Automatic annotation (TrEMBL), chain A:
Pfam families, alphabetized: YabP (PF07873)
Organism: Desulfoscipio geothermicus DSM 3669
Superkingdom of the organism of origin: Bacteria
Name of the protein this chain belongs to: Sporulation protein YqfC
InterPro entries: Spore_YabP/YqfC, Spore_YqfC
TrEMBL record, chain B:
Region (Disordered): 227-254, 411-433
Name under which the protein is recorded: Similar to stage IV sporulation protein
Biological classification of the source: Bacteria, Bacillati, Bacillota, Clostridia, Eubacteriales
InterPro entries for the chain: YqfD (IPR010690)
Keywords for the protein's UniProt record, in alphabetical order: Membrane, Transmembrane, Transmembrane helix
Organism this protein belongs to: Desulfoscipio geothermicus DSM 3669
């Protein structure tokens, strides 16, 4: 994995130098939280788990865990997910 | 909003999938570009989600590949609505019938309004309009507005303009009546009488026979210039070089009645009495105010806004209540009340004797001025202080004003009012100036 780390480091430095947004260059997710009611996750790789209390979304190399109450998936597009409900926590799991 | 409209137009279904294989199902569907929304838990280990009607077929493939069954729970949208309507021909026919009937009925005239008529009766206008083919129930296309306008204008006297406007099922006939000059009563005999008592200062007769002369004292209602003009005296008509016997035995002309006119100015007296205490007490508004808004239900009062206790010591309250309109015998005992409290402050003002006298006489004068007509001129003013024996803190003032003003007023001539002054064919005592 040393080669991959080196590549990532170079990419980050390159994007920092050119001031390019990370979600394009580094394939990172872009997460928008609207209060505690909505969360938009762009650039996702699918859903791992769904139930009203917990939603797990796969992103580039991590998993985003959204916990809360009465969670629903408002919509699913190939590159965007919108989760609605009373959100209590947003966690990154690697 | 737009998205919802599009979904409705294209139709969408709600499907239920078991929770166990949901993730795989969702991921595969979204990677294939199937748009899903409204994913929510429906209980009993099932999840409901919405999908477009056109995506149901590709979703079957996904379901087969993920070995995940789905059931269609609900169908919504225009395609399903149309399908349902196709089965209910009577309803569709009824709706169509309704629209057609509405269209047909809207092509008739149902109301005829007449506006702008003040003295002309509505029936008269309607009768004329009926002759031109405009009445309730006539088809709109058969109404010729220009013809109706012309007919009404010709048939109804006293109109200067008629306009006919078709406004949906309502036809408005607008009228403008001829404005005739008002009857001034120029031709009727009238006297000039005094409106108030006074001493005649000057009299200018334009028409009629004067009954008073300068320096006379008159009382209200007395005839000043009479409508009855006696025949001219033969001697007065004589001119120096003329022979008196031009028309020797002319029958005496009868008394002529004219509309008397003239200007009669007289001296009129006014008197007023005012008292002024040396110490004046009263309340004066400070300009501060507070508004209370409350609702009264029966006997209870609920305050929405404003204080429970009024913070002013002296105040004036201005209450404005709003009720629901009473219907038949039922009146709802609910009332919205807005109360405005204006803060007031008591004051005590002390005047000197001279000040009090001046103030009292000013007030008395203002009072007199308000009683005088517009063109009056004040000739003399006299202020008297009324003294009493015992000393008191009050000033009493009496103001006398002498004014010159017009006192003549035209009034229809009545044969026996005050007499015409002509008893035996002779003139009255006054000469014509």
């Amino acid at each position: 994995m040393a080669w991959k780390d080196l590549k990532n480091k170079f990419k980050r430095q390159f994007s920092d130098y050119l001031e390019l947004p990370g979600d394009i260059m580094l394939d990172l997710p872009k997460i928008v939280l609207v209060g505690n009611q909505q969360v938009f996750i762009e650039n996702h790789r699918g859903i791992q788990e769904y139930n009203p209390g917990l939603v797990r979304v796969v992103v580039s190399d991590k998993i985003i865990e959204v916990t809360g109450e009465n969670l629903t998936l408002r919509n699913i597009l190939p590159d965007e997910i919108c989760v609605e409900g009373q959100i209590t926590a947003l966690t990154f799991l690697s | 909003m737009l998205f919802k409209l599009l979904a409705y137009l294209g139709g969408f279904v709600t499907i239920a999938v078991s929770e166990d294989c949901l993730e795989k199902f969702l991921n595969m569907a979204s990677t294939r570009g199937i748009y899903l929304w409204g994913i929510a838990n429906a209980g009993r280990n099932r999840v409901e989600l919405k999908v477009r009607l056109s995506s149901v077929q590709p979703l079957r493939h996904v379901a087969r590949m993920t070995r995940c069954r789905f059931q269609i729970v609900e169908r919504a949208g225009l395609p399903f609505f149309v399908g349902r309507m196709k089965r209910r021909k009577a309803l569709l026919g009824g709706a169509l019938f309704f629209v057609v009937v509405l269209y047909i009925l809207s092509s008739f005239v149902w109301f005829v309004d007449v506006t702008g008529n003040r003295s002309i009766a509505r029936e008269q206008v309607c009768k004329a309009a009926r002759q031109a083919g405009l009445y309730r129930g006539v088809p709109k296309w058969s109404v010729d507005t220009a013809k109706v306008e012309e007919t009404v204008l010709r048939q109804v006297p006293g109109l200067s303009w008629v306009g006919v406007y078709v406004d949906g099922t309502r036809v408005r006939i607008k009228l403008v009546e001829k404005v005739l000059p008002p009857d001034t009563g120029q031709e009727k005999p009238a006297d000039v009488v005094a409106v108030k008592d006074g001493l005649i200062k000057e009299i200018l007769v334009l028409n009629g026979q004067p009954r008073v002369s300068e320096g006379d004292t008159v009382t209200a209602g007395q005839v000043l210039i009479s409508a009855a003009v006696p025949p001219p005296d033969p001697e007065e008509n004589l001119e120096p070089g003329e022979e008196p016997s031009e028309e020797p035995e002319q029958t005496p002309e009868p008394v002529k009645y004219v509309h008397a006119r003239g200007i009669v100015r007289a001296r009129v007296w006014y008197e007023d009495y005012k008292e002024m205490p040396l110490v004046e007490r009263g309340v004066r508004s400070t300009g501060r105010e507070i508004t209370k808004l409350c609702m009264k239900i029966g006997g209870k009062e609920i305050i929405f806004m404003g204080p429970r206790q009024i913070p002013y010591e002296h105040f004036e309250a201005q209450t404005n209540g709003k009720r629901l309109p009473a219907w038949r015998n039922i009146s709802i005992p609910v009332e919205f009340i807005t109360v405005k409290y204006h803060e007031a402050k008591p004051y005590v003002h002390r005047y000197s004797k001279a000040q009090a006298r001046r103030l009292a006489s000013e007030r008395a004068l203002a009072d007199i001025r308000s009683r005088m007509p517009a063109g009056a001129r004040i000739l003399k003013k006299q202020v008297q202080v009324v003294e009493t024996n015992e000393p008191e803190d009050i000033v009493r003032v009496k103001v006398l004003v002498e004014a010159l003003e017009e006192i003549g007023k035209e009034r229809p001539h009545v044969a026996d009012r005050g007499g015409s002054g002509i008893v035996d064919g002779k003139r009255g005592s006054q000469g014509n100036n």
